[in-house]
Structure formats: structure tokens, C-alpha cells
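Lecture 7, part 2: worked example. A protein chain together with aspartyl-adenosine-5'-monophosphate.
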Amino acid sequence: MEELKRILVSETPEHIGETVKLCGWVSIRRDHGKLIFIELRDRSGKVQVVILPDHPEAALAAKEVRSEYAIEVTGLVKARPGKAENAEQATGSVEIEATSLQIISQPIEEPPIDVSNPELSLNLDTLLNHRTLTLRNDKVHSIFSLYALLLEAYAAACRKRGFLEVKTPKIVSAATEGGANFFKIQYFDREAFLAQSPQFYKQAGVSAFERVFEIGTVFRAEPHFTTRHVNEYTGLDAEMGFIGNFEDVMAELEGIMMEIVAVIGERGQTDLARYGAATPPVVAIPRIRLADAVEILKREYGKETEGEDIDSEGERMISEYVAKTYGSDFIFLTHYPTAIRPFYSMPNADDPKYTDTFDLLFRGIEIASGGQRIHEYQVLVDTIKKRGMDPEAFKDYLDIFKYGTPPHGGWGLGSERIIQKLLGLGSIKEAVLFPRDVKRLTP
Ligand code: AMO
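Predicted complex, written out as C-alpha cells:
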């Protein structure tokens, strides 16, 4: 007889009445008298397998298996009348009547966690300590299905708009974003840094290709524990040339975000449903000057703000205000003070105490920063000096601006924060496969 080709669980409803071969993991085994039921899970979903006593070899093997055994099953696909037509669920529209069952790989010990539990109510540390197991849970799987969809949709939306995908170095000779949150590393006989952002290189990309985007790793030596910081994250960056002003940058980012929302709305419903989550409404994203946001917070919430920035509580409040007033889950806060933005930020032409920059907030937290950059060589040299830094240290960066670099701007989005807020996850770490924080370097 011809060797059967493996099919996926999701394909079984198309094979009713046929004998098929499936491979996957045992989610649960249940014995009912002489019948054995196995919930079999593969990358596409779950299906119920029933092992009848009239196939004694299969029944013998089935008695051996426990949760998370990797097995191969051959059997007849049978319709389960009256059951929902959802092949993803174990209680789906079909059932497999096994004629043979083989163990492919056997756990060396009983798994310490029952990943078949739909609600895996574990504390964050347990969830992360046992990551190789907890990633097998359906609800956790959904986080990463949506995450993959986000990456795909972001790249597609950028490409459609003429952005060229690039990958920039992550071992760099200078700290990009300033501050102290960089990791120093030993690079042969000298010191180097892990990139805090692709900022300089994406600007170099503009001077060559006009529009670039990158999906890349970003390293930040944030010493604190919060629900929205990790020390290694994936940035969705872009940079575009020949802009009129920074409004053009916001418009492009807004278009891309709405396209992502549409793709997730179309293809992510099963995964969103596991979290009772919905995609944000498609409405124009309000743009509010930071100084005005500070006023709104004072007026609406009696919140006093130190200096001219708003803290995480303020971000939550202004998001709540915008959701209530404009029906938007997003908001652009614009015109940040020069003093709190990186040196490369373009000062506002009318009032250089402010910059032509923005933050994009989503459901209460900042998910992106961006703005227009200084593109003139001499202005940049003067700005670096004014900030008490040495232009010599930025020689390679400054070279970008020697040969006709157009007005440009861009943004950096934190990919994990988008998923965190989309699903209402308590911590950003749930949206990172193997997160890194101050204490966590394993698994
Ligand atoms: P910024 O430093 O604001 O801007 O970072 C951009 C976005 O990255 C995300 N982010 C983080 N996510 C998880 N953990 C962290 N520790 C962390 N730090 C930042 C946030 C943030 O909005 N070069 C500029 C961007 C630009 O102007 O193009 C930059 O890096 O979502």
C-alpha cells in the first residue's frame, strides 16, 4: 500500500470517509471503559481521536501515552453530526477513528504544567520559567500568531508605500539615543555598544534609498521593572525622505497602523476571541500638542504635571479622554520640548523650544516615537556642540548629511507593546517569546 502523507488537523474536515495520517502532541487522554479518547494538537489546531478496542495494537500504544507525547495516528475521518464546524476545536466537526498509533517522541518526565488548560492561570514568573511548555498553550499560541500577523502586515504596508526593507548593524560604536540605557560590550580589543535603535542607519538609508523600514532587535539597558519595558525588544522602524513636514510622517504612520488593524481584523478573529479582544475602531487619529494635553489633564482630571512631559499615568488619562471624546484608541501627542528629545530632532520653526516630533499612544501607552530630523550638516554640528557633545564622536553619522540629504523623518514602534495593548496583557513580557529583563536572562 502507498505510504500515507501527513495532513494537518485543520484539513481533516475535507477528508471525511478517508483514512489519513496525523502527527502532533497529546493534549489530553481520556479513558471511557474500553474506549480511549485523545485530543491531538498540531500547529493548525486540535481534533479528537478515538481508539476502539478492535485495533488492539493502537489501543495498547494509546494506553502508554500521556500529555505532551508526540505521536503519529492513522485513522478514518468521521463526521460528528451536530458538532460545530470548527476544526480548530477538539469538539470540532470531525473525529478520527484510529487504526494505528505510534509514539514519535516521549517526554522524559511528567510536564510540570498542564498546558491543555485553556486559561493557564499562572503567575508571570512561572509562565516565563516554563516557557518551552507554556508556549504550547492555545491562548499563548494566539499571542504569537497575532504577533506574526503584525510583522507581516507592517512589512506589507511599508512595502506598498515604497519603503525598502533593510537590516542595520546591532553592534555599534556609539550610543544612538543618548542617556545611560545602553549595553556596553567587548568588541575584540575595544569597547562597543548594542544598538539602542537603528536611528543613524535608517537616516543613512534615506540618503541612499529615500524610504526604508526595518524590523529589528533593539537593546535598552532599562534598570527598572515595569509592565511595558524589556531589555531586548523588536522595533518596527521606518524613515522617509522628501517630506514637507512632520505631519507627513504622522499621516504615513497612521495609514500603516490602520492597514495593520484591518489585516488583524480580517485574519486574527479566532486569536482575538480567546482574549475577548477587539481591533481598535477605524477613525482619524487625533493630534494634540503635548502642552495642550497637559492642560486637558489638569482640567479634566486635576492632574498636575511636573515639567512639560506626561508620565505613564498621564498617558493613560489622555488616552481615556481621547477615547471618550473622539472614539479613538490612538492619539498623536506632538511638539515635545527640545530638552527632552534626542539631539537629532528637528526644532519647531516657530518656537525652537519645541520639536517637530510626536509620540503615538495606543490604549494608554506610548507605542511609537517619531518626528522630523535635522538634515543640514552645519545645523547638526552646531546642535551637537550646543548639547555639550563632541561632533568628532559623531563623525560617521555627520557624513550622512554631507551630500544632499533631503528633509526627512520617521518613527520607531515597539512591536510587543502593540500586541500587549491589543490583547490587554498585564505585561509586555507575555508578548515576547523569551523576554529579557534585569533579572531574567533565561530561558
Ligand atoms: P524611542 O526610544 O521612544 O524612540 O523608542 C521607540 C519605541 O520603542 C518602544 N520601546 C520599548 N519597548 C519595550 N521595551 C523598552 N525598553 C522600550 N523602549 C522603547 C516604545 C517606543 O515608543 N529612534 C527613536 C524613534 C524615532 O524617532 O524614529 C526611538 O528609538 O514603543
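Residues 177, 197, 199, 220, 222, 229-230, 233, 235, 366-371, 410-414, 416-417, 428 surround aspartyl-adenosine-5'-monophosphate (CB under 6 Å). The chain is about 30% helix and 25% strand. Keep this in mind for problem set question 3.
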